């Protein structure tokens, strides 16, 4: 208990000891009475503060508990005292990640009492992610400032910061409908089309299905598999490879790509389109358990945005993973830095006639050293394979404008470039 004494309390206790010694040496009873008083005061104050501090209770609320980047969130702390013992000055410290502005400090001049009191502060999330607010610690003491105790009142509370979703307009002609009507870009594969993909060789595969061209390029056995295209759906491919992006923080190319993918997915949901979101290598986001067809838009979108909030850069080197990431569906790819070999592989895995669109990020626009070249050669290679491609040159390029440009190109095949 004595560990809770402040400097003032320790000085009084030391004065009590000195007075007691002097009373014995000088044989003065009055000094002994003073010593008892000086010793009793900090000890009683310590017991008082310890009892009062244990009676404090707290509750934390986040409004909202899930928010977009650059949107404020109000943190509300409800404090009450369950004991009848009044508490002196109380200092509150709520731990907040540095990306949200750092720890929040508040001071209470008096005890919250049984009726309670409310403390609020606001945080601004500049970067998406799943953050933890807390723990909440308090430092409370007696009214005379002779003692103080540190306690943890609350554990952590989760705050999900989802990427910013921009409102998009329009759709690529015939995209995601599976109708293949004229003027819709490239017609979908028909019943007689060879809807095949290429994957790694597995034990028991027929050796006659080995795809020798891909095997030679990847230096490992690859086999051709027959796969029926899933009609009327759209797959959004988000390239989250760490090596494919440049920049740091909210202005990095990865954050731009995540926001673009979130906006496209939300727009396709609002348009009542079947949707899959996958990462590099065709890995589903948030997972195959959440694949759906025309499910409730709000629930589905919430799952998707939470998955994107927690998305981390991937250490993968390949983009396609040896098979068509869209499984024969229409494809919208948000690509970071891509090599010509990667573009060739991605294009070769797509079924003949399948609609393929790409937002190609020229990550040199996010590169601070300026030593990396553009991706014009990759854009030409994908266009030569029948893709519709628009390039993005920097973080200031508006996502709605890029999407509008992409939609226009599916009607008019003119090559367009979106500048900063």
UniProtKB/TrEMBL annotation:
Pfam families, sorted: DUF58
Biased composition (Basic and acidic residues): 188-197
Keywords tagged on the record: Membrane, Transmembrane, Transmembrane helix
Domain of life: Bacteria
Domain DUF58 positions: 198-283
Transmembrane regions listed in the UniProt entry: 7-26, 32-50
Region (Disordered): 173-197
Xref: InterPro entries: DUF58 (IPR002881)
Compositional bias ranges of the Gly residues kind: 173-183
UniProt name for this protein: Uncharacterized conserved protein, DUF58 family, contains vWF domain
Record organism: Actinopolyspora alba
